[in-house]
Design goal:
It is built from 15 helices and 14 strands. The two termini are about 50 Å apart.
């Protein structure tokens, strides 16, 4: 909650607030007031669009190439860009301010968040609205604090903890807000229920001109609701794959004992961040028309290029060291997510294969690690015989299962000997979450289902097992 006595939140009129010193930084830089069309920069309310022309109607500007990267040219670009290095210095200040309050997982992640914040101020001129997925394995990783900082720096923020598609439909317009959704795991988690409408809206809003049609009004007319808006979503665990695929993923971690941050206090933090936000608007809002015609050179392709293009555009507008820094962050973080996806897919395959091994072994409560490895490696169609340099071993197996909360333990078997083993009950929760078994279609042949007392028996459904009359009735169901 904001401090009501803060200059940024006080509604008292005629009060001249003195400059507020930032701990360790001295007085914040005084906001530059530059004459603009129809008034001064100070007269323009936050979130207003001084360039009132829609991005689609703005004529693309010509571009001159500097080091292979298109840069806007012409009077409009010269008006907004200012002296060489102004944008670069401003992004440096924003990056420093974000890093003061939040510990990001990497230098590339801090660069990405900085550029994402700046890109929110030119989103009416963009073709794609990248999502920012702020995820972490547990609570206390700084996800909500990062959203606090974003709220004070992005264009026209809309913060929510839980929302519905109907609300989002109605707040997005030609000048859309920047959606900030905290506790997204309560929306898309395993206990959240059906949220396909909201997920479809967030997926469609990644690209311009993907409206959602609904029946609206007393006359029940088909109405197109715009969906295009930038969004940051924070939560525990990964978001749905379709959202992660359209997002710049920030994988937060808990701070180490030696990592220090400045406490976030509205009395001095909010004015500092608002000053940077206003400078971003002064710089970038006049460039929205020029942005629509920019086609930067991207180090990645396909959807990754769509997602990162707005950030690279901001870096090219800033010039200096930012174009190279943005492309380096793009490559590093995109490759990291590719590896993460491969590991996630591999881990899910491992869970399915281990369930198959337990099913084959019957009613055993635990399996020795070596016995489990032997069966996994014998599967010619599985990747385990070629995993690593010499195939899957006990260390690899424990490492792959660690994220699911599964680890080997000493287990005493029937013969009285102890050995490292995996208990079946350790896997039950992970199987249900990541690779649920299909529901059985029919009872086992020869054993009729027992009807519930007081109710008529349900009619048979599904398909009959295929096989010779004297053969087995099909695969044995999971126990």
């Amino acid at each position: 909650m904001k401090d009501p006595t803060s200059p940024a939140t006080s509604k008292a009129s005629g009060v001249a607030w003195p400059p507020i010193a930032i701990p360790g930084q001295g007085l914040p830089r005084e906001r530059e007031v530059r004459p603009d069309v129809g008034g001064t920069a100070a007269d323009a309310p936050h979130g207003s669009t001084r360039d009132s022309r829609p991005a689609e109607a703005s004529a693309p500007t010509t571009a001159s190439h500097s080091a292979g990267v298109p840069v806007p040219d012409g009077p409009e670009a010269q008006e907004g860009s200012g002296p060489v290095g102004e944008g670069s210095a401003l992004l440096d200040d924003l990056r420093t301010a974000i890093g003061r309050y939040v510990v990001l997982p990497s230098d590339e992640a801090l660069t990405a968040v900085t550029l994402w914040v700046a890109a929110s101020h030119i989103q009416p001129g963009l073709q794609h609205a990248p999502r920012l997925a702020v995820v972490g394995p547990t609570k206390g990783c700084g996800k909500s604090r990062l959203l606090d900082v974003l709220y004070e720096t992005v264009h026209q923020p809309m913060m929510t903890v839980n929302t519905s598609p109907a609300v989002v439909f109605r707040v997005i317009g030609k000048n859309p807000p920047t959606l900030l959704v905290d506790e997204a795991d309560t929306i898309f988690g395993p206990k959240a229920g059906d949220k396909e409408d909201l997920r479809g809206l967030l997926n469609a809003g990644h690209q311009r001109n993907r409206p959602a049609w609904r029946i609206s009004g007393p006359e029940h007319k088909p109405t197109a609701f715009p969906t295009f808006a930038m969004a940051a979503l924070a939560g525990i665990g990964d978001l749905p794959d379709t959202i992660m695929d359209r997002a710049i993923v920030i994988r937060m971690q808990k701070r180490k004992p030696g990592e220090r941050i400045t406490p976030f206090r509205s009395r001095y933090s909010v004015p500092e961040l608002h000053a940077i936000r206003d400078r971003l608007a002064d710089w970038l809002v006049p460039l929205r028309g020029a942005v629509a015609g920019m086609v930067p050179k991207m180090p990645v392709e396909d959807r990754a290029a769509d997602t990162w293009e707005p950030l690279v555009i901001v870096a090219d507008l800033a010039s200096g060291h930012w174009p190279a820094r943005a492309r380096a962050a793009c490559l590093a973080m995109t490759r990291s997510e590719v590896v993460q996806d491969e590991q996630t897919t591999l881990k899910t395959r491992l869970l399915r294969d281990i369930r198959r091994v337990f099913d084959q072994e019957g009613s055993k409560e635990a399996l020795r690690s070596q016995d489990l490895l032997a069966v996994l490696i014998q599967d010619a169609e599985a990747p385990w015989a070629e995993y690593g340099t010499k195939g899957l071993n006990a260390y690899h197996l424990a490492n792959l299962l660690r994220d699911f909360g599964i680890s080997p333990a000493n287990y005493r078997f029937e013969n009285g000997r102890q050995a490292k083993a995996y208990a079946r009950n350790q896997f039950v929760d992970a199987w249900a979450r990541y690779c649920p078994a299909p529901a059985p279609s029919v009872p086992t042949a020869g054993v009729p289902a027992r009807p519930t007392p007081g109710r008529p028996p349900a009619p048979p459904s599904g398909t009959l097992p295929i096989g010779p009359p004297s053969g087995t009735a099909g695969p044995r169901p999971a126990r």
